[in-house]
Amino acid sequence: MSGLFQDDPADNDQSVPAPEGPGLFGDTLPVALPEPVHATAYRVLARKYRPTTFDDLIGQETMVRTLRNAFAVGRVAHAFMLTGVRGVGKTTTARIIARALNCVGPDGTGAPTADPCGVCGNCVAILAEREPDVFEMDAASRTGVDDVREIIEVSRSRPMKIRTKVFIIDEIHMLSKAAFNALLKTLEEPPPHVKFVFATTELRKVPITVLSRCQSFSLRRVRVSELQQHFGRIAQKEQVTIEAAALEQIARAADGSVRDGLSILDQAIAQAEGTITGDQVADMLGLADREAVFELLEAVMSGKPAAALAVTDRAYERGADHGTLLQDLLELLHTVTRLKSIPGLRHSQDLPEAERTRGAELADRLSVPVLARAWQMLLKGVGEVETAPDRRAAAEMVLIRLCHVADMPTPGDLIRRLTSGASASQAPSVPSGGGGGGVRAVANGAAVAEAAPDPGPRLSTFRDIVAFVGERKEAMLHAHLLHSVHLVRFAPPVIELRPETDAPRDLASRLAALLTDATGTRWTIAMSAAGGEATIAEQGNAADSARKTAAADHPLVRAILAAFPGARIDTVHDKTTDAYGLPAAATLPAPDMPEFAPPDAEYFDEDPMEIDL
User: Fold this and answer.
1) In whole angstroms, what is the distance from residue 520 CA to residue 457 CA?
2) What is the rounded distance in angstroms from the CA atom of residue 529 to the CA atom of residue 486?
3) Alpha-carbon distance 584 to 565, whole Å?
4) What DSSP state is assigned to residue 583?
5) Count of C-beta atoms within a 10 Å radius of residue 101
6) What digits encode the pLDDT tens for the residues 369-388?
7) pTM of the predicted structure, to 2 decimals
């Protein structure tokens, strides 16, 4: 007999009979979907291969050695400051320190160790980020003093399960000034069961009062060669085939950051079908192929704009950004300059094979001034590309400029060519007899230098004497000679002066000693009561007044003063005057110039005066 919710037991057919008419959902019944299968969430490579011990950290040997020694002798500091660029392992190191402080070993009796077991309850809980006594705080989002006060309050109680409470504060430089001040006292005298581990990418923004209470470790950028080997090992574990060129591209793009490199490797694995090639990675990142960068540098340094632009066209078709292309060129230029300056780098394993061979060839061919000039032009060009409305056009203009200066001599070479050519072509003949002239040195039949005896200072007028005193940095004596003495007689080596009342009493002795020392001739400075000339300052003022009067009488100046009421003549610059505003001493005409102009010369009125209104 069939039950209420069950068919006849004798009837083994469990199928539902078809309805005679249309159902609620139409002619056909809905098909029951199978139960969904929950797939395991994918863990990115940066998390899957995050280091769990000090031995897993790459490129941080100095820090690891110091921490190992500290744990070995039981001298573990109460606060650590870890600094470095993103992705080098700051937070990872902080978590390893937390496990090292709280590991109890597989048997539960172990002490703090630099090699946490990873299997004890404390290690497992901290590794899974579910240990309540290991606090992680992001100071970028919790910057206030209340957040720090919460940490201080929690630090007073003893840990519930583990040995030591560990406070990990990331990006600590983002804390406010009040938050830093609130942390200082606890940081200086923390409870014995508390440790602090801080991480920052901006160490300069952390107050010195906080730094002085911490042991600081600078995590360095990981070398390209180390990153390349590390990524190669991970690719092998992931059973992925990847070319060495692709690994090098990823390692370079990582810029010293392990996490950045693993993210790029993850992306390359996801997009590739089969072997990951260097071209695929370059396309993915929008980079120029390294071979293309070498070709571009060789074309630019050879002065071949057509070849250079052909390289950029091919890179553009592949999706490479022109700004990135110039930056790659700038980086290669820097590498070549280093190879030029430090020949030992040609045998360094930190550089790829291409840079050790082709880069060394370029370094042998190019001089340091040429490399420096190209660096300056490229550095400016990168900035131009970033601000230009058309990045491609701006980059091409930079490369064309570089091509056209490739074969130009440097300023130093140009000066040497000009001076050597002038000395060879303008050298006068050497007299055969003895005489009092200079001595000319001759090498390979060409005159290269002439050593003339030092004639000493030119002291043919009293103004020359005053100027010479000014050149010797005798400021007070120079001022008195300008304003406080009147020239009575000038007959070298005798000078007769009339001093003003404000002139110092030792003026004559000081001036005589200075001139005697400079010329080797004994000078006599006599003081007189005669009137003498006006002081040099008075003469300069009178000359300046005369120039202003002459300028004011000029028709053009009168018109300007009339057009602009209130305008006045401030200064008149005369190129024919000396530093004191007086006419310069007359010079003899050059021997190859006629004394007078030819009769048919065209009249030309040139006024050497410049007027400031």
Assistant:
1) 11
2) 10
3) 35
4) B
5) 22
6) 889 889 999 999 998 998 88
7) 0.55
